[in-house]
Each structure stands twice: as C-alpha cells, then as structure tokens.
Amino acid sequence: ILTFTNPESQEMGRALAEAGIPFAFYKLGDLFASPEAADVLALLRAVACPEDRNLRSLALMTAFFGLDLVDVVASADLGPGNGPTRLLLHFAALGKMGDIPALFASIVDDSGLVRREVFAQGSERALTNILHVLEILQAEWTRTHASVLELADSLDAFMRGTRSPPGDDSDLQRLETDKDAVQILTIHKAKGLEADVFF
Question: What is the structure's pLDDT at 155?
C-alpha cells in the first residue's frame, strides 16, 4: 500500500490492524520520535540514577515493566525489595559495572518485554524499535565506551535532532516482520522498487 506521508501510513496500519490483516511498515522514518525511543531514554536515565524517585517512576511506566499507573505508584512506594524496583536496581548494577552489552541483554531478556510485546499484544513494531534503538546505542558504546548516562544523553540528542548516529538510514524504522504481511510504504520510499500488486 502506497501512501503520501508517514501519518497516512500509520492511519492505514491502524485500519489493517482493526481488520485483523497482518501488515508491516517499509522504511518508516522517525525511529527516534517513536514512543519506544522515549521508553529507552526513560529507562537509561533511571538506570544511571536509580536513587532518583522521579526517574525511577518514569522508568516503571515504560514497556519494560508492563505496569499500570496504580502498580507504578505501589512499586515506587514499596522500596528496593519489590519485583519491578529490584529489576531496575539489577539493571543499574550492570550499568555501573560498565557492561553495556550485558545490560542491554538483561533489559530484553529479564524484563518480559518480548512476551508482552509479541505474544500478548500481537505486534512486533514496538519490540523491533526497541531492539533497533538498543543496537544503535550499543554501537555507540563500542565506538566510545560511553557510560549509561552518556548513552542516555546521546539518545536524547538523537531524539532532539541535534546529533545523528552514524549511517544513512539510522533514523528509519526497520521492517518488523518477514512473515507474509501487507507492506505499507510512502511513495518516496517506493522509488526503484517493484511490486506485483499495489494499491
């Protein structure tokens, strides 16, 4: 399906989702404007400063913990022994050691993110965006050996557009699935491609 703009692509995606038709976005832009990038930033800020109650609460509201607002308030008040806060402190310990690959692996594996995003919600877009942002940040760490706080600052700069990560397509969202699905793309992204059928 060809559209003129990214918002039209998003609208078409919502319509296909409501109809139960599998779809995927082809080279959708604005990875760093996505809610998933904001979630990663909130988590990294809390991992860098786990003693800050406000940052902790913001992190607990992200997709990494799967909590509703009531659970976030309860978790923030219960202290370090409760499950979500204990997990956040585990992330903070890995971050303090400077082992960013282990931190990012733990964030993906131990948070239950994959189970919630793919199996519970039936969408791979959020997970694909999170993995893509973490991959870009890990490449940044490999190049610079930045701290968690420095990586958070880099992500913030990418999101504000004051810096760009290396690579021409770094802000393009990846295709979230290789399963049979309707592909949605803008006319601009379709240049040079061929398709058997298009609408």
Answer: 95
Q: Which residues of 114-151 are buried (b: 16+ CB within 10 A; e: fewer)?
A: eebbeeeeeebbbbbbbbbbbebbbebbeeeebebeeb
DSSP state of 162: S
> Residue 16: helix, strand or coil by DSSP?
helix
Beta bridge mates, 186: 3
Backbone angles phi, psi at 39, to 5 degrees: -65, -45
146-152: average pLDDT:
96
Token pair belonging to 157:
């700069």
CA distance 181 to 167: 27
d(C-alpha 148, C-alpha 171), whole Å: 21
End-to-end CA distance of the chain: 5
Asked whether 167 and 173 are in contact (CB, 8 A), the reply is: no
Tokens (6 digits) for 178: 């290789």
What digits encode the pLDDT tens for the residues 6-31? 788 888 888 988 888 877 777 666 78
Query: If 0-12 CB within 10 Å is exposed, 13-18 middle and 19+ buried, where does residue 95 land?
Result: buried
Backbone φ and ψ for 152, nearest 5 degrees, come out as: -60, -40
- At residue 179 the predicted structure's pLDDT band, cuts being 50, 70 and 90, is low
Contact 186, 5 (CB under 8 A): yes
User: Could you tell me where the beta strands, DSSP code E, fall in 67-197?
Assistant: 182-186
The token duo for 75 is 């978790």
